[in-house]
Amino acid sequence: MRFEWTQWPGSSVHISFVENGRKPPTLRFSRGIDRAFGIAGTADSFERQYREMKNGNLLEGFPEYVKYEGTAAEIRLYEIGIVPGLLQTPEYARVLADNAARRGAITPEQAEERVSFLAKRQAAMERTRLPTLLVVMDESCVRRQVGGPEVMNAQLDRLVQFAELPNSVLQIAPYDIGERRTFDLPMNLLTMSDLSVIAYAESQLRGHVERDTAAVLPLLTAYHQLQAEALPQAASVAMIKQVRKGTP
Questions:
Q1: pTM for the complete prediction?
Q2: Is residue 1 part of a domain?
Q3: Distance between CA atoms of 72 and 62, rounded to whole angstroms?
Q4: Which of 8, 11, 99, 177 is the most exposed place for a label (fewest CB within 10 A)?
Q5: Adjacent-strand bridge partners of 172
Q6: Could you list the residue range(s) of the whole structural domain that residue 50 is in?
Q7: CATH code of the domain covering residue 143
Q8: Is the pLDDT of residue 55 over 50?
Q9: Same domain, 38 and 141
Q10: Residues 30 and 131 in one domain
Q11: How far is Cα 192 from Cα 131, in angstroms, rounded to an integer?
């Protein structure tokens, strides 16, 4: 697609350089082009292409988060709908990535990268000083069937094994806590070795790392409140085993 200089108020020389690959596009530039062509917020937007070029098939902010995750002393996770990545079996992760590729959300090559990247994140948890992993999962994470019975049963077995680790706590937030659920979106909270806390949250389009203490502490409080409402670990494991057996 050729740009008509009259359609966008930027420098024609700058646009020409971007077209010819002599300069990389910026986020501001991409958004300006989207406004000029009326495609802002669409699947074909230049902003989306910019973010894909910058982060590969990872959401903006996520690579930065992973760097902190790999050295965190304590990791708190809350997830809705799917098992958290650090707890996923390779088969479960593969089903999710392949499905995204079938929908056209990512390419088959990006699906491979996604599975490989997750394996590296999981491997980073096996270090000399093991991090404490505190995980609260919405009940939907274990009720939602992913990949058929064989894949899902192996994943549920993996969760039971995770709960037995000395550095882990696994809790299920049951449906019946209703409005007492403190988060409407997944939330990651990292406590670093210097006791600073970092938060990471995602929307459908991008992720955001928050390091400001004033913004993060209320999220930490909300996580503690969620843990209080969630099932204890023993009851959570019992629920997982019931789902594994196919009982309500």
A1: 0.76
A2: no
A3: 15
A4: 11
A5: 137
A6: 12-55
A7: 3.30.870.10
A8: no
A9: no
A10: no
A11: 10
